[in-house]
Amino acid sequence: MGTDKLSLEVGTMPLLRRVHDVLAVRCREVLVVGGEGTRQQGVRRIAGERPGGQGPLAGLEAGLAAARNPLVFVAAGDMPFLTETLVGYLLARLERGDFSAVVPRYRGRTHPLCAAYTRELLPWVGSALDGGVRSVRVFLKGLDGVEYVGEELRRFGDPDHFLMNVNTPDDLRRARDEAAR
Fold it and tell me: What is the pLDDT of residues 124-150, one digit of tens each?
């Protein structure tokens, strides 16, 4: 996008604040991994510990290592329509089940950056990174104890809406249009 995405406004609010406000309802702490961009009150910034931009899996490792709670919700900072009920549902499924992760899967696409994880995964994440894995999706494929949720996502609204990421200028226009409705 050529700029700090988290500072971009959707519905008169920066993306980071939109995600923070949703997470703060269900999570005792909100961490942002990487970057020195947009600031948000109530957010603790964590620098990724691995050099060289090793991707989202390295961000997951840094977040799990810094988290103070045994259950962690991971959300991309560019999800303008993430809902508190979805966050609560995925965390509750993780807490009640015998899983290491609860991850949405919608229309054949896995959403690992909108998912609940246990901190106990930290050593496996580190081993995967040491072995050259950079993708959270690839990491999850090799992991036992992942629950994928799909059709039940509809109870929280339109999954295309609340799982949306802002990755392109067209995505940003679409998100702003949807927020204005």
Answer: 999 999 999 999 999 999 899 999 999
Q: How far apart are CA 29 and CA 153, in angstroms?
A: 24
The token pair that represents 103 in the structure block? 């991850």
> What pTM value is reported for the model?
0.92
> Across the strands, what pairs with 146?
101
**Among 87, 88, 103, CA closest to 146:** 103
Specify the pairing of strand 146-149 against strand 101-106: parallel
Q: Which residues pair with 72 in a beta bridge?
A: 117
Helix axes 122-130, 56-66, angle to 10 degrees: 150
In degrees and rounded to multiples of 5, residue 48 shows phi and psi of -65, 140
